[in-house]
Design goal:
The chain has 13 helices and nine strands. The chain is of the alpha/beta class. α3 links the parallel β1 and β2.
Length: 302
């Protein structure tokens, strides 16, 4: 089930950086197909515990039958509260693989892929909230421009927003194929796939509030990690990686280093990965979707 759902990225590297203590308590913030969680369980002893988060109910089918494993059906933005509800106030390590699972791209009916035609949904949690169709059909051109520029880093977001507004004036944009057709006039023929990837990424991030959720989870990680506990994050685009890099370096999202009275840097973490860890050539050949992955790890100081 796991391999069909999602191939875990940087599996040995990420679990290795967690430096697992057999009796420790660990968190997998992005359970998905369960690949990372299963590897963590292999390293835990009988007294160890693992809490794995996922807001997508589809992932429950991937849960291992293991008394040390605890599935948390929740967005990881609620990390601290969800753990406290389960009597956990301190953990030894947290792993987050921020990528969209292969399952979401391959399950065309979820609307994450621009290949084929499917309802323009893109919600990780299908039990509520706005869909991508809601956004493209109701937001004004300025709001669309902001989303496409901020989250997709599209070069001319106002042009793309204009294409969407003109197309929806004729008829609502309800499917992925209709969105692709709507932006066709401003799609560069040479880099069509790259452009559409950025467009769909921007809408997906906005629909799921991904950047705000990541900020909340990182801030809460400081409160739940014990001193000496480790945080390992795998990101897939520059927006995520910048947030993670700055936070691990400084404890804030701007990368601003605070100094004490004596001029010594005050940071909550010691960064363990001087440069981001990337997939090996062997992994890239085996799983091309891992090509943009970057892993960063740090240990909490106090």
């Amino acid at each position: 089930m796991t391999s069909a759902y999602h191939t875990p990225v940087l599996l040995e590297e990420s679990v290795g950086w967690l430096d697992i203590a057999p009796s420790g308590t660990y968190v997998d913030l992005t359970f998905g197909g369960g690949g990372h969680s299963r590897r963590i369980l292999e390293s835990l002893g009988g007294a160890g515990r693992l809490y794995s988060f996922d807001q997508d109910r589809d992932t429950r089918a991937n849960c291992p039958d293991d008394s040390r494993f605890h599935y948390v059906e929740s967005n990881f933005r609620f990390l601290r509260g969800a753990l406290r509800l389960r009597g956990v106030t301190e953990v030894d390590g947290i792993l987050a693989d921020l990528g969209v699972s292969s399952h979401h791209f391959d399950a065309l009916e979820r609307g994450f892929s621009f290949r084929g035609s499917a309802p323009l949904d893109m919600r990780m949690n299908q039990r509520g909230g706005r869909t991508a169709a809601d956004l493209v059909n109701t937001l004004d051109a300025d709001a669309l421009t902001r989303i496409l520029g901020d989250w997709g880093e599209i070069d001319t977001p106002w042009k793309v927003a204009g294409c969407i507004v003109r197309a929806r004036a004729a008829q609502p944009i309800r499917t992925t194929a209709e969105l692709v057709a709507a932006v066709a006039p401003c799609t560069p023929k040479k880099d069509e796939a790259k452009f559409l990837t950025k467009l769909f990424q921007a809408l997906r991030i906005e629909v799921n509030g991904e950047m705000e959720a990541l900020k909340m989870a990182l801030e809460q990680s400081l409160k739940v990690l014990r001193p000496g506990g480790r945080l390992v994050v795998i990101s897939y685009h520059s927006l995520e990686d910048r947030l993670v890099k700055n936070f691990l370096r400084s404890g804030n999202f701007e990368g601003r280093i605070e100094k004490d009275f004596y001029g010594r840097a005050e940071t909550p973490f010691e960064v363990l990965t001087r440069k981001a860890v990337t997939p090996s050539g062997e992994e890239l050949a085996r799983n091309p979707r891992s090509r943009s992955a970057k892993l960063r790890a740090a240990v909490k100081l106090k």
